[in-house]
Amino acid sequence: METDSNAGLGQSRRYIRFGPFQIDQQRQQVSRGGTRVKLRGKAYQALLALIAKRGQVVTREELKRTLWSSDTHVNFDANVNMTVNKLRQFLGDSTERPVYIETIPRKGYSFVLKLEYANQPFPQSSFASPAGTEQDIPQEPEKSGMKSDRWPTLEVIALILAGILLGAGIATFLIARFGPSLRL
What we know:
The chain has 184 residues and is of the alpha+beta class. It has two domains: 2-140, Winged helix-like DNA-binding domain superfamily/Winged helix DNA-binding domain (Arc Repressor Mutant, subunit A, Orthogonal Bundle); 144-178. Helix content is 40%, strand content 20%.
């Protein structure tokens, strides 16, 4: 495993890790805590551009050239902003307290977290937090836990159906008992 001190060598390594994220450059896949997550297109390209110049400013113009060909006609400023915001959302980062991507006003962006490089996948049992300490990977909620979210809805539906059936039963009983002369 290599850290940023060998960044020149690290660029040729297959795997890059930062925080809970790992990138397999050969497969162009990103995983979080060992689980593959979808980050494709412009956001993935922007992440690689920022990682390639970790700690340095990647100008908006550089991102524009990286993300779009010269013959593309779009609102580059808005699209660069949207792409970086999408990437931040994916990473769980914020502009107020950046952990991964820092905005450099009127210039561009900088990837600020330490990177690790390797030829083999990193262990999935733990990850380095932004502070650099090891901690357990947060687990996804179990499917049985998701079912418990449905119970309140099912209870309401059951109560409505019980009320309808009870009302229909009472009406049927009253008509049978007191005859058709009963006005409801």
